[in-house]
Amino acid sequence: MSHALLEKTSLADSPLLPVVGQDLAAPLIQGGHVRYANLDYAASAPAVEDVAAHLNEVLPFYASVHRGAGFASQVSTSVYENARTIVADFVGARPDDTVIFTRNTTDSLNLLAGCVESILQARGYAEGRSNVHGELLYLDIEHHANLLPWQKLPHRSVVAASSIESTLARVETQLRAGNVLLLAVTGASNVTGEVLPIAQLAALAHQYGARIVVDAAQLAPHRRIDLAASGIDYVAFSGHKLYAPFGAGVLVGRSDWLDAGAPHLAGGGAVKEVRLESTRWTDGPARHEGGSPNVLGAATLAKAATILAELDASDWHSHEQQLREHLVAGFQNLDGVTVHSLFSDSASYAECGSIGVVNFSVTGYDAGLVAAYLSAEHGVGVRDGKFCAHPLLNRLGLPAGSLRASFGVGSRREDAQRLIDGVAALLRDGLGWDYVVDSGRWVPANDQRSYPEWAPNTPGTAGAAPCFTD
């Protein structure tokens, strides 16, 4: 075997990039500590170390932007506006596309929904009337962020088929029926990790006179995106999934709809002129960025985008795919574990496949109980619930929820193996501790472990908000 091949096959043994907290010690319920195996990247990914270092570089210059004459304000303005250019390059934006910084993907999609509503109203649409002015079309597999904003507008949904090929045919049937203004699709399922053929979907939308928006919250941290090459009209994603802290999101896309929409946040910076009884709004990104912007969030998001753009694409995908294949193979060797998927042809369909997300369930055990057990007894963090995708979980026959393991650039094979070993021990030996339901969540009974002294609660403390809808 060649040296190059050996390097490729061992990529998953180590993190692809160092991340903050990669050696975090997690306390075990039975005593002692173990390195925390973070398999919840799809919810919020840890910051890449170089992103955290960049934050420390920028922080001394943190100040107001756009209207400050001081040195720090000028530097902060430069950092903030340059972040737009970096993000635009990261997603292959067209020269006339607009980059708007938001709170997160959900905020981005709600912003676009507001613009679409303004366009419909300009065409004579009124809520409650029979719509003849344009409808929204979305799949039934969407995260709530790419479903709920469209429900307040005239809309149709497409039930995804058991194959990508058949799903594309169903989408085309709805587009051919006419009157579709915008097709809203996920780039990669946040539940199963399966990637959709977004370039083909964009071509179909355009063929029938519609535009397309892609929820890339899961896709952007794992795959290259190129708006110009793929024909995507709008893309939305979040910094907290892209290895950047501070909760910044972004919406990138064609400017005409964004300039036509009502301002997303009415406030300072979004205006040309204000009188006591009227306002003239500005155009461009500022139109939707009322109030003081999240300068540090934009700066760290842009830094993360720069780092990911510099990764060797082959190494990036191989690292992730090796981890996913290792976990799936390990689960397939365990009687009582089911790995869930949507499409029979996702692995073979061109430009699809799956990102580093594996959805599974353990026969005879509530998903929340398994997650609590893995954390308390094995130091493994996974997600459980319905992943803000209730229609899809119901479709998969999992109305009570399931489990999700997700990887990223800081993951290593040992993390996946620890999860496999933990589930195997559960199936072989059962629970090693008593667990109770507290505030809607399974927790270890009589848990004496504590958080760091600066954290307000300890594990198992009542009062945490129940997570019935995740």
State the helical fraction.
25-40%
Q: Please work out how many helical segments DSSP would assign.
A: 14
**Strand content bin:** 15-25%
CATH superfamily heading of the largest domain: Type I PLP-dependent aspartate aminotransferase-like (Major domain)
The rounded Rg comes to 23 Å
Mean pLDDT across every amino acid position: 92
Q: What is the CA–CA distance across the termini?
A: 45 Å
In CATH terms, what is the architecture of the largest domain? 3-Layer(aba) Sandwich
Task: Characterize the main sheet.
Answer: 7 strands, mixed
Count structural domains: 2
Topology-level CATH name of the largest domain? Aspartate Aminotransferase, domain 2
Secondary-structure-based class equals alpha/beta
CATH class of the largest domain: Alpha Beta
Low-pLDDT sequence parts: 1-8, 460-469
Summarize the structure.
With 470 residues, the chain is an alpha/beta fold. Helix content is 34%, strand content 17%.
Structure description:
The protein has 470 residues and is of the alpha/beta class. Strand 7 (180-186), helix 7 and strand 8 form a beta-alpha-beta unit. The relative contact order is 0.16. The longest helix has 20 residues, at 71-90. The strands form six sheets. The chain has a seven-stranded mixed beta sheet with strand order 4-10-9-8-7-5-6, with helices on both faces. Helix content is 34%, strand content 17%.
List the keywords.
Aspartate Aminotransferase, domain 1, 34% helix, PyrdxlP-dep_Trfase_major, four-stranded antiparallel β-sheet, disordered C terminus, Aminotrans_V_PyrdxlP_BS, 14 helices, alpha/beta, disordered N terminus, 2 domains, 470 residues, PyrdxlP-dep_Trfase, Aspartate Aminotransferase, domain 2
